[in-house]
Amino acid sequence: MASERPPCQDVGATAVLEARPREVAFSRFHVQVQLGPDQGASQVADAPELVIGSARGNQLVLTDQAVSRHHCVITVTPQGFLLRDLGSTNGTRVSGIRVEAAYLDPGALIGVGQSTLRFDVLPGEIREPLGDEDLSGRVLGQSTAMRRIFAMLPRVAASDSTVLLEGETGTGKGLFAELIHQQSRRASGPFVVIDCGAIPPTLIESELFGHAKGAFTGAQQARAGAFEAARGGTVLLDELGELRLDLQPKLLRALEERTIRRVGSLDPIRLDVRVIAATNRDLRQEVNRGNFRSDLFYRLNVVRIRVPSLRERREDIPLLVAHFYRQFADGAKPPLGLVEAMARHDWPGNVRELRGAVERAVLLGDPVLWREGAATEGEAAQGEARENVFRDDDLSLSFREAKERVISLWERAYVHALIRTNGSNVSRAARAARMDRNYLRELLRRHGVLATDV
């Protein structure tokens, strides 16, 4: 299991321990094939994670035809050794029982395909360094999970290798990508972000590779794509797991050959970019499902960084709450009750959700009102905006009309809360919102909000 270990210096028979751990230690483990086509094959984990499957690139590669390409993974966690099935076709079994995830005891028997594996814990430990800083660029954290990433970032940034960032929505993958770019030799070059999940399927190829004049209807002039625009810098392919299957070979070719061709052109263009990919999906599972090409996954999986969820780094919550509160409250410290309540809360939306909750607490001027759905008189306007974001009768409106209705509801909720928080003083509210006072007056008039001025 994982544990923090402070560094030791031998002074005679005395070990001097520093209070702040400089490294984290992981228990070593061993997996051996007891039955099946690969009987006798074994693998000792040299990292906190060991992946088992039939595809190259796994730590333990099996020839069993009933084993999926990326079948299962064993991860060392503070709670124990976690076995997780990766969406395999035939499933993973522990002591004959099919499981999606389970903690393993020493000597546990794991069934994959037609094979039986034995799991054993070994003496000794794997040690990894921890970063010394709590803040790395715009990324904040003091937990072991974050300091592990901080320790490896300088080495990752110094290379030109492709990086794959995995993690749940809202964990800050985009900030890590920007941080890698800023610490690299390409820092003076552009940082171009392409959201593969937000661009219409008909435009994604043009957005990535550009197009020639007349390549399609509306292409009145030639246009450079993201790879050309990022020349000398870094391109972030955000939400890469959403990329259409038919475009994946073209991306693979671009990464392999370091050349692209604009849509409608045969002229090759040499690339001078670093590629970082981010996804909230486990691409190994997507490979098993046939939604992602295995060869593209291997090409992207040169350096893989898994960004932890907020549930895995709860000790960072007070630090983040204080940081965001200072941002939204002009440097003020958050109320202790707010910090304690937020530290106990589950955050499915991760850091992005936490940031929104802190902003809501500051905006409403009450540390109790940060939760969505808090039923108080002061939140009536906000509740109306939340409950009426979309209604069935919106489908009778045009997209533009429906969008304008939602924006109006949000504006009304915002100015109500803004004026209430600033004691109905327009000047103070305008300064707090960094808004022109005359424009705020117009919003107040439009939404029927009473206020005074000085």
Walk me through what this model shows:
The radius of gyration is 26 Å and the shape is globular. It has 454 residues and is an alpha+beta fold. Helix content is 32%, strand content 24%. Helix 8 crosses helix 10 and helix 12 packs across helix 14. A hairpin with a 6-residue loop joins strand 4 and strand 5. It is built from 14 helices and 23 strands. The model is unreliable at 5-18 and 373-388 (pLDDT under 50). 31% of the residues are buried. Strands 1, 4, 5, 10, 11, 13 and 14 form a seven-stranded antiparallel β-sheet that branches. The chain has a five-stranded mixed β-sheet with strand order 7-6-8-9-12, with no helix packed on it. A five-stranded parallel β-sheet has the order 18-19-22-17-23.
Task: Supply the key terms.
454 residues, 5-stranded mixed beta sheet, globular, 7-stranded antiparallel beta sheet
Our estimate of the beta-strand percent is 15-25%
Low-confidence stretches: 5-18, 373-388
Number of helices: 14
Rg from Cα: 26 Å
Biggest pleated-sheet summary: 7 strands, antiparallel
Overall pLDDT: 84
Measured distance between first and last alpha carbons: 62 Å
The assigned structural class equals alpha+beta
Shape: globular
Helicity range of the residues? 25-40%
Q: How many beta-strand runs?
A: 23
